[in-house]
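hey m, so remember when u said the tokens were messed up on ur end? i reran from scratch. heres the input so u can diff it against urs
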Amino acid sequence: MSKQILVAGGAGYIGSYMVKMLARHGYEPVVIDNLSRGHKELVVAGKFIEGDLLDKALLQRLFSEHNIEAVFHFAALAYVGESIKYPSLYYKNNVCATWNLLDQMVRHRVPYFIFSSTCATYGEPKWLPLTENHPQNPISPYGRTKLAIEWMLEDFWQAYGLKYINLRYFNAAGADPDGEVGEWHEPETHLIPNILLSLLSENRLLEVYGNDYPTPDGTCIRDYIHIHDLCYAHLLALNYLMDGGKPDSFNLGNGEGYSIVEIIRATEKITGEKVNFEYRERRPGDPARLVGSAEKAKRILGWKPEYPEIDVIIDTAWKWHKKRLVKE
């Protein structure tokens, strides 16, 4: 009998690909998503439950009716700017909802939790590439909510034995190489899809926030990781816990940084089209550089990115967005 894995936020960008990967590896995904930011059409496997993690009665029924063996948690709000404007919304949706989920896990003795955390917990880098022992001093409510959850997980491990892995993402990017699922946010705030959407929309102008950062071309530098590689790390993290591994935290990135201008030029090369963009004022909460070391994940989890090249990441995203817009 297949092991049932709960995927919270499984109708979102990363969660939907995780659902597909779990099914391909012989697991039975059970998906819960309130569809406030996700899309049911992206759930291509398992059982789908429309609902909110803040609904205690629903979670109680879900854990009572299913033999859940582990939880993957992707159900969070993740816009830095929005979190600065509406911190209450972020603490409610991210922290309170996660407490609800963990409480039910303890009640139903579900032992394993794989958490979608973020490099935003580090704040302004004191050194690069960022390693897991870097001080955590987030500069946005979004980053603080994720760090609060990391603290909560440590306490639940100490008190109840709930085993967890924090996976601190850098910039998730790209799409399913099969073209079945991919990035679909409304509104879209991520760089690569916004570049691509500017090419697919008539007279759409790409806005680049800040060109006066202390970087070679003045624009922010980020570390991009393909969602396939990201999700495969989650699978390895679950195997690690099931094999007796202890709770831990791992960075997930490629260890290479690309500026916004470099991403624009790479996209122009892949698509053969010219990107029309203009500079705007900096956004609050954006560090100049964020590049991470994933050596710990490679050493302990045995993780190795399959799609590290930025051209491949952009190409899979380009094919996905063209296909999605044709469907619409």
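this time it looks ok to me. The chain is about 40% helix and 20% strand. if urs says something different then somethings off w ur setup not the seq
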